[in-house]
C-alpha cells in the first residue's frame, strides 16, 4: 500500500499524462480516417459526374442520329418545340451575350454586335413589307411621264390617241412671279407642270387672296367641269382663279379643243371621258365635301322658282347637231298648260295643314301630255326625231303623293332619270347617321335639301356614273313626273354618244361656284402598289381621302428601325392632323395595293372653312373620333407588353378588309366550294359579291383583261367595292392576267390549303411576293369535319411561309372536300345559300374576322375560382354568342387553351375536372416539396399535370386563335405568347411567385411568371389582336378592407393566441399567402376599372 501511495504521490499528474497521450493518438487516427472519407466521397462524385456526362453524351448522340434519320425521310424540317424565327432569336441572344462578356472593346466587337442585333429583329416584318418602291421609269422622258399621269384621269387613252393629243401640246417657260392664269383668261386648257412650282390663288370679292394649292412637277391645273363646257361650245372664263410661278418653271399646255378632234375620230371615247369626269365629280369632289367636310347641298345652287311651261310643238324640225338646244321663243308652239308663275310661292307660304294643289283643275288627256313630255325630253337630251319612238315607248308618267321617295340615297336599283312635270321635289343629301330617320324628319329636311321645280331634269349624275345616287329625291308636294329608266338611256348613248354631253350639262348647270373652285384644287390620284403617298419629314400641305384601296403608315426611328403605325381603308382621312397642326409628316404612307385617293390641299380646306363654319364642327368630330379611337385601341398596360408580339399584331386593330383574294395552294384544293361557303357566311353580315373570271367576263366581255380595257376593269371593280361591304376575288389555278389582277386589287390574300397535305410551297405561291409583296397574306388550312383530333404540324406550314401574317384552321362541312363536280357544287350551294349560316362554324368565324366583327373572350386569373370559366363559356354558347378568339391569364390561360383545343364544352368540362382532381391529390405535391430558396415546390408535378392535359400541342395547332400573357422578370415586362408550346406558356402564366419556380422560355432563356402580376384581365391585348367585341370575365376575389389596426409592430404569438382562443375578440390580419395574393393583383386594379369602362367591352 505504501509503495502504491508513494508512486501515486511521486506521479500526481500521471493520469493527465495518460489522458494527453490517448487524446493525441485518437486525434491522429481520426484525422486519417476523415481524410480517407473525404477522398472517397470526392472520388465517388467525380465518377458520378463522369458517368452522367457520358450518359448524356450518348443520349444526345442517339437523338441526333434519330433526327438525322427523320430528316433523311422528310425534305423539310418540322421542329416540335418552337418555330424557326424563335431558334434564330435563341442563338442570336447567345451570341450577343458572348459578345457582351468580351471585356476588351475593339473593331471586331462592333460588327458582331450589329450582326447580333439584326439577327434578333425576327419579330419585324420583311424589309420589303415596310419599304417604298422605287419611283418612276428612267426610260420614259419626264414630260411624257407627266402627260401620262395627267391624262390618266381621262380613262387610260390608247397609244394612238395619246400621240394625237401630244401633237397639240405647247411648252411655256415662266419666270418667278410670272402669271400663268389671269382673271378673264379663257378656261379652255389643261396645264401640266414639268419643272418648278406653280401656285394657284383664289381671289375673293373683298379683294383678299387665298392660296388654293401649290402645283408640283407632274401635277396639273385644270377644271374637268370646264372640259364639259368646252365640249358643249360654251367656253367660260376664269373669274376667281389665278396662277403664278413661284420659281422658274416649265409648263406644258394642252388645249381642250384637241379632244374634239379625237372624239370626232373615236366617238366611243366621248362617252368614256364624260363618264370618268362625272365619276370624279361624284366620288372625289362631292364625296370630299359631304363625308369629310360635312356639307350637304351647299354644292348645289338653287334654281329660280319660276315654273317653266311644258309646250307642244306644232312643227318639229330636225335639230342641228351643233345647236341641240332651241330656245322656246324660236319654236312655234302653244301652251298646253298655263301655270301661274307664283304658284310655288303660294304653296310654300301655305299653312302646314293646307293641302297643296295636285295639278291644274282642267283635265288633260294622257296622250297630249305624253307627247308634250316626249318633246321636252327630246329637247333636253338633244335628240332628233329618230329617237322619239324609243322615248314614247319607255317613258313612264307617274303621279306621286307628297312624301313619296323616288330615289333613295345609296340604293343602286333606284337610279332613274326624272323630269318634273308639275308640283315639286326635294333633293336632299342626308348624313349617314341620319339616313334611317329621314322619313321621320320633315322639319329638319330643309337644312339638307333644295327644291326641284317643274321643267327640271334630275338624276343624270347617277345615270352617267352607273353608281348609286348620292341624293334622296322625295316629293315635296303632290306631283307629276316622267321617269326614264337608265337602261333606256344607255341604249341611246350607244347609238348617239353625244347625248352624254346634254345629260352632263343638266348636272353641271346645277353646281355652285364652290364646286368649280374645288374642282380646280382637288386632285384625283391613282397610286400603284408600293408607291409612297408622302414621306416622313415632308411638308404637310394637304390631306388625302381614300376612295378605294389600302394604305400603310410606317415610321422610321432614329436607329433606322421601321415600325408599322396603322393601315387606312376606304373613307379614311390620311394626314389631316399634321396638315392642321402645320407640322412635317411624322410617318411615311405607302400604297399596299393599287389605290385611288382624293387630294385635298390645305388652301382649299381653309377657304371652305372660312365660308362654311360648319366644316369646323365636322372636323372637330372627325378628329375626336380619330383621337378617341387611337387612345382606346392602344393597350392599357404601361409595360412593353406588345414588344414581344409578332409584327402583324400591331396593326390588327384596323384589319377590316374590302377586297379579299382567294388563292389555292395546290390544284387539289376545293376552291369553288370554299368560296361558296365563305360567301354564304359573309352574306349574313352584309352585302357581298363573289367574282371570278367567268362573272367578270360576262359583265365586261371576254377581253376585259386587255390593256385597252384596264381603266374599265378598274372602274368596274371600284364600283363593286362601293356597292358591297366585301368583295371576294376567286383566283385561278394559274398565274393568268385575272389572277394577277386579283392579287393587285386585294386588301388581303387568303392562301387556301389542305391541312393534311404537304406544306411545300407551290408555284403559284412563289409568285405572291413578286406581285403583292406588301399585301397582307393569311393561311387557311382546311380539315375534314370527321377530323376529331386537333391539327398538327402547323409550324411547318408557317416556317416555310415567312410572309404569312396569320393562319386559320377551318373544319369543312360534310362532303365539301369530296364534292368536285362543278355542276353538283353549283346545285348544292344554290339551295344552301337560301338558308341561314351556322353562327358557330369556322367559316362564320373567318367571315367575322375579315369584316372586323370578331368576338373575343378574355379569361382572367383567380386561382381555384377559375373553375367558373367553364360555366361562363357554356353560358356564352347557350346565349348564341360565338367565340372567335380567346385569351387568358393564370387559370384563365389553362381554361382558354382547353376550349381552343377541344371546341366542345363537354370535353372541356371533363378534362378540367380531371385536372382539378390531380391538383387535389396531396401525395405527389408533398413529394414535390423542395428547400424554399426559389420556391416551395419543384414544379415537376405541376408540369406533369398540365402536360398530360395538353400534350405537346403548339398554340399554332389550336382550332381557335389564342394568346396568353406572362410576366418576364428577366426583362421586367409583359410577354404575349401567340405561338410556341401550349403547356409551357400555360404553366408560365400560372406560376405564382414563391410557390412555383419561374419557367425558362425555350426561345431566349428568360424567366416567366404569372401574367396576373402585370395584367390580370388583358382585354386591351385582345383589342390589339383584332377583336371588335370583347367579353372579359374576371374571377378575382373581393378582398376585405376592414382589417384590424394592430399598431406599429405585430407579435405572431399574440396573433396565434387570438385565432385559437374562442373567448377573445377576432382580429383580421392578412397572413403570408393572403399578402402574396394581394400583391399579385394590386397593379391590375386600375387597369381592371379602365377595362370595365372601355368602349369595346
TrEMBL record:
Active site: 890, 1010
Molecular function GO terms recorded: phosphatidylcholine lysophospholipase activity
InterPro entries per UniProt: Acyl_Trfase/lysoPLipase (IPR016035), cNMP-bd_dom (IPR000595), cNMP-bd_dom_sf (IPR018490), LysoPLipase_patatin_CS (IPR001423), NTE (IPR050301), NTE1_P-loop_dom (IPR056556), PNPLA_dom (IPR002641), RmlC-like_jellyroll (IPR014710)
Principal localisation: endoplasmic reticulum
Superkingdom of the organism of origin: Eukaryota
Xref: PROSITE patterns: CNMP_BINDING_3, PNPLA, UPF0028
Keyword Lipid metabolism assigned: yes
Sorted UniProt keywords: Endoplasmic reticulum, Hydrolase, Lipid degradation, Lipid metabolism, Membrane, Neurogenesis, Phosphoprotein, Transmembrane, Transmembrane helix
Record domain Cyclic nucleotide-binding: where: 153-280, 526-608
Broad EC category: hydrolase
E.C. code: 3.1.1.5
Motif GXGXXG mapped to chain: 861-866
Sequence motif: GXSXG, positions: 888-892
CC terms in the record's Gene Ontology section: endoplasmic reticulum membrane
Membrane topology: Single-pass type I membrane protein
Function comment: Phospholipase B that deacylates intracellular phosphatidylcholine (PtdCho), generating glycerophosphocholine (GroPtdCho). This deacylation occurs at both sn-2 and sn-1 positions of PtdCho. Its specific chemical modification by certain organophosphorus (OP) compounds leads to distal axonopathy. Plays a role in the signaling mechanism between neurons and glia that regulates glia wrapping during development of the adult brain. Essential for membrane lipid homeostasis and cell survival in both neurons and glia of the adult brain.
Assembly, per entry: Interacts with Pka-C3; interaction inhibits the catalytic function of Pka-C3 and the esterase activity of sws.
Family: Belongs to the NTE family.
Name of the protein this chain belongs to: Neuropathy target esterase sws
Amino acid at each position: 500500500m505504501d509503495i502504491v501511495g508513494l508512486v501515486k504521490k511521486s506521479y500526481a499528474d500521471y493520469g493527465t499524462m495518460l489522458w494527453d497521450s490517448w487524446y493525441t493518438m485518437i486525434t491522429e487516427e481520426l484525422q486519417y480516417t476523415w481524410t480517407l472519407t473525404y477522398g472517397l466521397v470526392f472520388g465517388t462524385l467525380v465518377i458520378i459526374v463522369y458517368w452522367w456526362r457520358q450518359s448524356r453524351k450518348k443520349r444526345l448522340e442517339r437523338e441526333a442520329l434519330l433526327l438525322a434519320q427523320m430528316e433523311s425521310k422528310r425534305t423539310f424540317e418540322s421542329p416540335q418545340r418552337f418555330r424557326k424565327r424563335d431558334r434564330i432569336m435563341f442563338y442570336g441572344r447567345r451570341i450577343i451575350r458572348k459578345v457582351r462578356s468580351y471585356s476588351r472593346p475593339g473593331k471586331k466587337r462592333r460588327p458582331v454586335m450589329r450582326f447580333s442585333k439584326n439577327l434578333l429583329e425576327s419579330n419585324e416584318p420583311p424589309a420589303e413589307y415596310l419599304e417604298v418602291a422605287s419611283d418612276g421609269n428612267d426610260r420614259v422622258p419626264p414630260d411624257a411621264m407627266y402627260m401620262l399621269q395627267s391624262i390618266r384621269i381621262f380613262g387610260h387613252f390608247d397609244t394612238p390617241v395619246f400621240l394625237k393629243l401630244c401633237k397639240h401640246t405647247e411648252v411655256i417657260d415662266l419666270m418667278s412671279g410670272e402669271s400663268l392664269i389671269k382673271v378673264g383668261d379663257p378656261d379652255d386648257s389643261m396645264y401640266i407642270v414639268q419643272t418648278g412650282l406653280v401656285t394657284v390663288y383664289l381671289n375673293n370679292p373683298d379683294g383678299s387672296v387665298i392660296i388654293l394649292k401649290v402645283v408640283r412637277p407632274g401635277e396639273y391645273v385644270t377644271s374637268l367641269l370646264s372640259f364639259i363646257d368646252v365640249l358643249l361650245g360654251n367656253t367660260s372664263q376664269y373669274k376667281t382663279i389665278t396662277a403664278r410661278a413661284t420659281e422658274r418653271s416649265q409648263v406644258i399646255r394642252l388645249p381642250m379643243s384637241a379632244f374634239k378632234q379625237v372624239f370626232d375620230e373615236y366617238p366611243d371615247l366621248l362617252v368614256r371621258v364624260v363618264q370618268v369626269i362625272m365619276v370624279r365629280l361624284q366620288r372625289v369632289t362631292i364625296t370630299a365635301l359631304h363625308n369629310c367636310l360635312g356639307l350637304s347641298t351647299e354644292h348645289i345652287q338653287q334654281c329660280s322658282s319660276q315654273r317653266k311651261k311644258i309646250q307642244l310643238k306644232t312643227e318639229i324640225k330636225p335639230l342641228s347637231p351643233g345647236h341641240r338646244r332651241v330656245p322656246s321663243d324660236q319654236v312655234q308652239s302653244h301652251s298646253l298648260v298655263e301655270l301661274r308663275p307664283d304658284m310655288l310661292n303660294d304653296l310654300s307660304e301655305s299653312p302646314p295643314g293646307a293641302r297643296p294643289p295636285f295639278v291644274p283643275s282642267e283635265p288633260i288627256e294622257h296622250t297630249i301630255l305624253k307627247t308634250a313630255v316626249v318633246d321636252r325630253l327630246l329637247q333636253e337630251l338633244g335628240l332628233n326625231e329618230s329617237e322619239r319612238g324609243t322615248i314614247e315607248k319607255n317613258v313612264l308618267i307617274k303621279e306621286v303623293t307628297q312624301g313619296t321617295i323616288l330615289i333613295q340615297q345609296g340604293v343602286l336599283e333606284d337610279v332613274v332619270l326624272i323630269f318634273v312635270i308639275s308640283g315639286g321635289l326635294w333633293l336632299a343629301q342626308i348624313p349617314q347617321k341620319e339616313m334611317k330617320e329621314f322619313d321621320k324628319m320633315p322639319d329638319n329636311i330643309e337644312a339638307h335639301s333644295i327644291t326641284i321645280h317643274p321643267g327640271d331634269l334630275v338624276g343624270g349624275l347617277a345615270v352617267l356614273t352607273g353608281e348609286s345616287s348620292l341624293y334622296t329625291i322625295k316629293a315635296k308636294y303632290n306631283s307629276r313626273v316622267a321617269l326614264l329608266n337608265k337602261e333606256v338611256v344607255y341604249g341611246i348613248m350607244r347609238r348617239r354618244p353625244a347625248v352624254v354631253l346634254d345629260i352632263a350639262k343638266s348636272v353641271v348647270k346645277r353646281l355652285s361656284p364652290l364646286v368649280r373652285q374645288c374642282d380646280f384644287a382637288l386632285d384625283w390620284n391613282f397610286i400603284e402598289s408600293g408607291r409612297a403617298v408622302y414621306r416622313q419629314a415632308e411638308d404637310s400641305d394637304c390631306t388625302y381621302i381614300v376612295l378605294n384601296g389600302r394604305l400603310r403608315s410606317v415610321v422610321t426611328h432614329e436607329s433606322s428601325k421601321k415600325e408599322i403605325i396603322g393601315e387606312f381603308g376606304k373613307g379614311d382621312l390620311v394626314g389631316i392632323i399634321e396638315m392642321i397642326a402645320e407640322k412635317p409628316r411624322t410617318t411615311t404612307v405607302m400604297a399596299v395595293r393599287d389605290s385611288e385617293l382624293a387630294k385635298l390641299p390645305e388652301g382649299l380646306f381653309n377657304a371652305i372653312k372660312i365660308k362654311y363654319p360648319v366644316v369646323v364642327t365636322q372636323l372637330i368630330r372627325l378628329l375626336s373620333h380619330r383621337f378617341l379611337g387611337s387612345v382606346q385601341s392602344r393597350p392599357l398596360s404601361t409595360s412593353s407588353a406588345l414588344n414581344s408580339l409578332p409584327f402583324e399584331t400591331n396593326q390588327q386593330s384596323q384589319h377590316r378588309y374590302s377586297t379579299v383574294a382567294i388563292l389555292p395552294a395546290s390544284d387539289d384544293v376545293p376552291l369553288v366550294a370554299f368560296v361558296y361557303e365563305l360567301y354564304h357566311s359573309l352574306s349574313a353580315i352584309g352585302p357581298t359579291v363573289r367574282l371570278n373570271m367567268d362573272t367578270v367576263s360576262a359583265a365586261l366581255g371576254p377581253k376585259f383583261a386587255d390593256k385597252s380595257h384596264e381603266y374599265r376593269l378598274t372602274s368596274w371593280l371600284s364600283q363593286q367595292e362601293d356597292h358591297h361591304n366585301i368583295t371576294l376575288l376567286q383566283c385561278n389555278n394559274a398565274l393568268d392576267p385575272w389572277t394577277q389582277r386579283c392579287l393587285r386589287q386585294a386588301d388581303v390574300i387568303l392562301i387556301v390549303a389542305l391541312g393534311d397535305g404537304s406544306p411545300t410551297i407551290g408555284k403559284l405561291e412563289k409568285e405572291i411576293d413578286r406581285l403583292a409583296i406588301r399585301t397582307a397574306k393569311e393561311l387557311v388550312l382546311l380539315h375534314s369535319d370527321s377530323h376529331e383530333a386537333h391539327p398538327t404540324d402547323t409550324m411547318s406550314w408557317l416556317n416555310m411561309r415567312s410572309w404569312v401574317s396569320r393562319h386559320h384552321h377551318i373544319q369543312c362541312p360534310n362532303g365539301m372536300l369530296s364534292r368536285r363536280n362543278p355542276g353538283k357544287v353549283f346545285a348544292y350551294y344554290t339551295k344552301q345559300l337560301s338558308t341561314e349560316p351556322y353562327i358557330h362554324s369556322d367559316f362564320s368565324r373567318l367571315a367575322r374576322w375579315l369584316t372586323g366583327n370578331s368576338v373575343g373572350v378574355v379569361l382572367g386569373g383567380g386561382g381555384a375560382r377559375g373553375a367558373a370559366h367553364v360555366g361562363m363559356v357554356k353560358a356564352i354558347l347557350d346565349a348564341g354568342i360565338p367565340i372567335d378568339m380567346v385569351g387568358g391569364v393564370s387559370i384563365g390561360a389553362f381554361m382558354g387553351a382547353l376550349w381552343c383545343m377541344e371546341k366542345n364544352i363537354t370535353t372541356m368540362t371533363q378534362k378540367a375536372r380531371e385536372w382539378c382532381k390531380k391538383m387535389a391529390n396531396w401525395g405527389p405535391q408533398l413529394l414535390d416539396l423542395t428547400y424554399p430558396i426559389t420556391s416551395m415546390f419543384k414544379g415537376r408535378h405541376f408540369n406533369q399535370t398540365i402536360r398530360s392535359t395538353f400534350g405537346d400541342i403548339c398554340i399554332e395547332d389550336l382550332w381557335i386563335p389564342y394568346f396568353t400573357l406572362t410576366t418576364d422578370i428577366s426583362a421586367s415586362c409583359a410577354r404575349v405568347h401567340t405561338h410556341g408550346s401550349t403547356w409551357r406558356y400555360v404553366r408560365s402564366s400560372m406560376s405564382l411567385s414563391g410557390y412555383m419556380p419561374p419557367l425558362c422560355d425555350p426561345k431566349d432563356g428568360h424567366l416567366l411568371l404569372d401574367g396576373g402580376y402585370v395584367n390580370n384581365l388583358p382585354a386591351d391585348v385582345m383589342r390589339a389582336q383584332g377583336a371588335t367585341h370583347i367579353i372579359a370575365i374576371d374571377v378575382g376575389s373581393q378582398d376585405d378592407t376592414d382589417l384590424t389596426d394592430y399598431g406599429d409592430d405585430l407579435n405572431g404569438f399574440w396573433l396565434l393566441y387570438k385565432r385559437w382562443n374562442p373567448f377573445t375578440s377576432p382580429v383580421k390580419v392578412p397572413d403570408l399567402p393572403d399578402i402574396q395574393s394581394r400583391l399579385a393583383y394590386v397593379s391590375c386594379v386600375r387597369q381592371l376599372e379602365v377595362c370595365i369602362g372601355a368602349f369595346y367591352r
